[in-house]
Amino acid sequence: MKPFQKVYLEITSVCNLSCSFCPPTERRAEFIKPDEFRRRLQEVKLHTSLVALHVKGEPLLHPKLDHLLDACKEEGLQAVITTNGTLIGKMRDKLLGKPALRQVNLSLHSFEGNDPERLDAYLAPLFAFARDAADSGIHVSFRLWNGEEKEEGASYWSHNRLLLERLSAYYPTAGELSRPLAPGSGIKLAERVYLNRDLVFEWPSLNAPEDDGAGFCYGLRTQAAVLANGTVVPCCLDGEGVINLGNLQEASFADIIESERALRLKEGFSRRTAVEELCRKCGYRRKFG
Ligand code: SF4
Ligand code: SF4
Predict the structure, then answer these.
(1) For ligand 2, atom 8, which residue shows the shortest CA distance?
(2) Residue nearest to atom 1 of ligand 2 (CA)
(3) Whole-model pTM?
(4) Order of strands, sheet of 139-147, starting from the edge strand that comes earlier in the sequence
C-alpha cells in the first residue's frame, strides 16, 4: 500500500488571475519541462497512485499539458486538475480523452464580479466541458469555496445568486440549489458532476498570528507536494515553500520525506503538536482539532 493518497506536483507557478484571497507567489515564474515532470513522476509513483497538478499557478496555462497527462498514464498514475476554468474552452482537447485524468475541479469562486454577461461567457465553456468530460468518465467538481464561518441562508443566496441561477437552469434535475450547502458538503448535479461548497480558502502565512500549536494535520501523512522549482513541502498549502524539506534537483523524494525536518514534523503531529512555525499559523490544522 502506497503511503500518500495524493502528491501535488505543481506544473507551473504562473497564474492568469489574481484572486483576492490568493496572495501572488514570490517564486520565480516557471513551467515544468516534460522530461523533468516525468522524472518527478518516477520518484513519486513509489509513494502514491494519484498526482494533483497544481499548488499555486493555473495548470491550464501549461502548453504541454496533454504530454504531461500522457506521461502520467505511461507511469501508471492518475491525475487530478484544479483550475480556475478560464482557459477550459481553449484547452479542452488536451484534457478530454486522456485516460490518466480522473477528476477536474473547476473553482467557481475564482469568478468575481456581478456582470451577468461576463459570467455567462465564463460559464458556457465550463458547462460544455463538464458534460463532455462526464460522458468520457472524468469526474467534475464545481467548487464554490467562498463560504463565511457564520453564513446565513440569505447571504449565501445573495452572494452566489447569479451562479446558482445559472447552475439551476443548466442542471434542472439537481434539486433546490438555493438551499445553503454547508461547508465541506456537496450536491450531485448530474452523473459524475458535483457542486462542492467550502469556506474561503486561506493560505497559511508567517505573518499570521500564532496560536498554542496544539492539533493535528495530515501533511506528510496522506499527502506531500512538490513546487515547480523542485522544492518538496509537506502539503498543498505551503505555496511559498516555507517548510522547505529539500529539492528534487539535489536529493530523492524518498530521502527528502525521511529527512530529519520531515520526521520532526510528522512526529510532532503524532503528539498533536505543530513543530513548524507555519503550521502554528495555519487554520487547516485547527480543522482536525
Ligand atoms: S486562487 Fe487559483 S486562480 Fe486565483 S490567483 Fe490563486 S492560483 Fe490563480
Ligand atoms: S498545518 Fe498547515 S502548513 Fe502545516 S503541514 Fe498542515 S496544512 Fe501544511
Answers:
(1) 235
(2) 279
(3) 0.95
(4) 186-190, 193-199, 139-147, 101-107, 78-83, 50-52, 6-9, 223-226, 231-233, 246-247
